[in-house]
Amino acid sequence: MKYLIGLKMYDWLAGKFSFGRSKSLSRDELIGIIPEIKAEGLQGGIEYWDGQFDDARLAINLAQTAAEQGGVLLNYMQVTGLLKADDGKVNGVVARDIESAKTFNLRSKIVINATGVFVDQILQMDSTAQKTLVRSSRGVHVVLERSFLHGNSAIMIPATIDGRVLFAVPWHNHILVGTTDTPLENHSLEPIAPDKEIEFILQTAGQYLIKAPTRDDVLSVFAGLRPLAAPDKDTNATKEISRSHKLIVNASGLITITGGSGLPTVKWPKIP
After folding, report:
1. pLDDT tens, residue by residue, 192-218
2. Among 101, 127, 136, 146, whose Cα sits 20 to 30 Å from the Cα of 256?
3. Which domains does the chain have, with CATH numbers?
4. Do the beta carbons of residue 204 and residue 166 sit within 8 Å?
5. What are the Cα distances from residue 172, in Å, to 39, 114, 198, 224, 238?
6. In terms of Cα–Cα distance, which of 139, 255, 157 is closest to 206?
7. What is the β-pairing status of strands 182-183 and 134-145?
8. Model-level pTM greater than 0.85?
């Protein structure tokens, strides 16, 4: 019931832009919509609506639009330092071409640090006294054949045995299943999906699907890193780490945007 109440609040907030109204489903209604779900122990469910878009395609479209508007697109370029004017204001970056190993000084009026889990490294280039802002969290996903979920409806399990959320979503004629949420002390450019997290996803999905997936059914695996606001206390529970995003403008003029969903926290430099 608490989930339905929460979803009804989302319906109310969406107003006329809502995709559809949330409602309770009986056991038989749920099986009728998703026949691939296990009937044993099933009491019912909740139907709600959500949006879906291709984020990879969106990134390419944004790059195309930037190029059409006269922007210069640089790939495989690593920022190794910040350029500053005599007054201490940031006016560019030092960037290294990963493929040719050449280094370039790139001047600009404004530098925006929107580097996800790597924002702290850029901030440290501006000031070594900068407090850590981000704690990274790894999310692992597996891709399965469409036979595990034939319809257009997705499955979302709000509370697995270890308190995580599991979903199985139709995606480009396949099924995307995930996700894990593992806090990390260190991160890399190419996060690796550990075997134990893949097994957790498969075993948990097998508790709810008639056809339990195995490693032989996995077509693809990928992992991503979420930039979460660093907690004030030491915790490994990602649900306790803020999903809000922050907009910070340093005294040097460096602009940083980081974090997840939620209302922004804006921090401006002190004016002397």
Report:
1. 899 999 999 999 999 999 999 999 999
2. 101
3. 1-51 (no CATH), 72-133+239-267 (3.50.50.60), 137-224 (3.30.9.10)
4. yes
5. 27, 29, 21, 19, 29
6. 157
7. antiparallel
8. no
